[in-house]
Amino acid sequence: MQAERENLVLVNSFYSNSILLKDLIAFLNDHVNVHFIDLPGFALHAPPLDEVSLDGFSRYVAERIESLGLDHYILGGISFGYTVVCRMPRDERCKGLVAIFPFMGKKSLKLKWRKRAFYLLIVNFFAASGLSAWAWKTRLLKRFAFWYSSYPPERVQVILDHMDGRTFFETGRIIFKRKIGFPFQDMPHVLILNPEDTTIRYEYALKRFSENVKNLCVLHIDMDHYPQNPTKEYFQKRFRAENIKRINDFLNQNGRQGRVKSRPAAKRTAGQGGQP
Question: Is the pTM for the entire model greater than 0.90?
Answer without folding.
Answer: no
